Amino acid sequence: MARPCPVGGGPATMRLHPHRSRVSRMAGLRFSVRSLGMVRFAISPIWETIAAIRLLHHPGRGLLGEWTAEQLPVLDQLPWLRALVPPSGHMADVLTPTPPRARNSLRAELEVVAQSGPEVFVADLRHVLANRHCLDRSLIERALADPVSALIEITAEVERAHRMLIEPLWPRLRGVAEADIAHRVSRVGDRGALAMLADLHPGVVPTDAGLTVSTSCPEDTELSDGDGLVLVPCAFAWPEVLLMRQTAGAPTLAYAPRGIAGLWTDRQRARAGLAELIGRTRAQILTLLELPMTTGQLAGSLGIAAPSVSPQVAVLRDNGLVTSTRRGRVIVHERTGRGDGLIGGV
Length: 346
Description:
Blueprint: E1 4-7, E2 25-30, H1 33-37, E3 40-41, H2 45-56, H3 65-75, H4 79-84, H5 106-114, H6 118-129, H7 137-145, H8 147-166, H9 170-191, H10 193-198, E4 204-206, E5 210-215, E6 221-222, E7 230-233, E8 241-244, E9 252-255, H11 261-264, H12 266-269, H13 272-278, H14 280-288, E10 293-294, H15 295-302, H16 306-318, E11 322-327, E12 330-335, H17 337-345
Parallel strand pairs: 2-6, 3-7, 7-9
Antiparallel strand pairs: 1-8, 2-5, 4-5, 8-9, 10-12, 11-12
């Protein structure tokens, strides 16, 4: 059975659950050269939704603390997900299927959840029931008594959770994920696949044989030549990594992408002084360019139309704060040293 395993942070990463350090061990994902060549990225709305539910069990903490505190009342409206996604330990496998494509729609992912076989779902429920952190055992037992009806209700609740929690943020979440993928693909070209994997998370360490992952589910996994590995940039996975090891198909590793601080902190809202100096939208663009982004990625992160972004970028470029370089069919914008200095000085 696949198990979504939370991965603890390293010395520089805040832990939501310090007690995990007593049980965390190193699991191995061993892969051949062919499997390494099949590592791919995917953007998944359902992974963001389920990771957000997990994070809501720990409101007001760390980088996303303001958002979790504001959204905490939503958790009481989602009884199935509150039970199936406990604060710690294993959660329901069926809720986080391996994304089949690079960009996935919620509807397609919900269809995969709805089509989960009853025997797989029942085994999954028993696994969650065994988790000592499960918050509503009576609801899990109800699902065991009628798994077909329960799965219908759960699928509808996931859709509702996405609408309440993720949909308002989705353009920005997707933009940050796309920018992170572009950065890591560039790293592969510059330094190779292992260098790209090296800075996913302090608990994920490349080795000559594959990856070692600090996790509470320490079983090693040998990836067959047809498996590969799916990497999912997922803002709400912060500050951990979620590891799903499928018994058939590709294991999936969800990690927090670079630049998520810009979604909720002053980097996104832009420092008031900088906004007064160069304008609110240009200040937001300059802060978002902590890592290179295309015009479309900037538009997605800001939640505005791409044609509205281009003239703002042009002003920043004319003043030496950003550069723009064509890479294939897209133009990538990067902050210059002068831009870095302006950000640091405000």
